[in-house]
Amino acid sequence: MADEHKRIVLQKLTGRFGHDIVATHSDFGDDTALVRPERIVEICTFLRDDPDLLFDFAMDLTVVDYLGEEPRFEVVYHLYSLAKKHRVRIKARIPEEDPVIDSVIPVWVGMDWFEREAYDMYGILFRGHPNLKRILMYEAFEGHPLRKDYPKERRQPTVGVEE
Amino acid sequence: MAVNHAKDGAPGFLTTRFEAVLAWGRRYSIWPFTFATACCGIEVMGAFGTHYDIARFGAEVIRFSPRQADMLLVAGTVNYKMAPVLVRIYEQMLEPKWVVAMGACASSGGFYNNYSVAQGIDKFMPVDIYIPGCPPIPEQIIDSIVLIQKMIDSGGSRARDRWPIKI
Questions:
Q1: How do residues A110-148 score in pLDDT, each as one tens digit?
Q2: Are the beta carbons of B80 and A158 separated by less than 8 Å?
């Protein structure tokens, strides 16, 4: 039953989008698809609306920083279907010099704060986000602290500190 | 203070200095303001609950307005985003006031040596008592109250009088 679902999700995805799905695997029982970032909104809309998939619950959005590789950043979406009880992980690689990807708020409005967090921590720019500003760090904070090249010892205190 | 202990029915009297009476009153009415941001706050609740009953030391009147509090109990992790808020609260408290840094995080940043956590609240405000532990047990909070009582009694100098520390 579960295996059947797994097959369905990745099969329908590759069947519908073809070469826009760069790679897929089901390692450790987790369906994963690496997709082209330009098509992310269409892919997400398809995942949400297809009657066999119905991914109505955007559980998480995060970023991985592969410093030294190109493209450097990988935006990761974790999706769940409350109706079908299945999951999928969608990944998209975007380059360091232009870390832009389309916002998926039109698909799942709950992605708003996840995208803000990804912007805050990694500096990923979500095109079309209505309110893309820091959510965890303060406005005056410089840089993006979870990037691998953020200096580990760097401190940006907000009140006068006597060192 | 010198007290006439004779129980002969005559009206008693005592002689003292004004400062001593004031200290006696202050000692048993330390009103804490709890700034609880992490698991230390749970231990604070334990200290104020019936089992440890900090009321025995006259410090049970928790004020949630800094303007009515004597003691700032910083229990938990303070990050750089929160630091200006904490300083603002401290500045609103009336003199005399005491600050207790409870737990490893408030004292030194604890194991959070990263981009967001202040490495001890004494980087930006005077601290009278440091309570070690992660989190400390309620007896240690009571001990900090007793230490402040002793400071009041002896008229000892507070961290505020030595602030800012120049090294």
A1: 999 999 999 999 999 999 999 999 999 988 889 999 999
A2: yes
B94-148, pLDDT tens digit by residue?
Answer: 888 899 999 999 999 889 999 999 998 988 889 999 999 999 999 999 999 999 9
The alpha-carbon gap from B93 to the nearest alpha carbon of chain A, in Å, equals 18
pTM exceeds 0.90, yes or no: no
**Left if phi > 0, otherwise alpha if psi is -120 to 50, otherwise beta: which for B120?**
left
Exposure class string for A115-135: b at 16+ Cβ within 10 A, else e: bbbbbbbbbbebeebeebebb
Chain A interface disruption, residue of B79, B80, B117, B121, most A CBs within 10 A: B80
Beta-carbon count within 10 A of B75 CB = 28
A133 shares contact with chain B (CB less than 8 Å): no
ipTM of the complex: 0.76
| A163–chain B nearest CA distance, Å | 8
Give just the sign of the alpha carbon dihedral B93, B95, B101, B105. Answer: positive
Residue type for position B166 = K
A142 Cβ under 8 Å from any chain B Cβ = no
Strand order in the sheet with B71-75: B32-36, B71-75, B98-102, B129-131
Interatomic CA distance for residues B60 and A113, integer angstroms: 40
- The answer to whether B124 contacts A159, with C-beta atoms less than 8 Å apart, is yes
First CA to last CA distance, chain B: 39
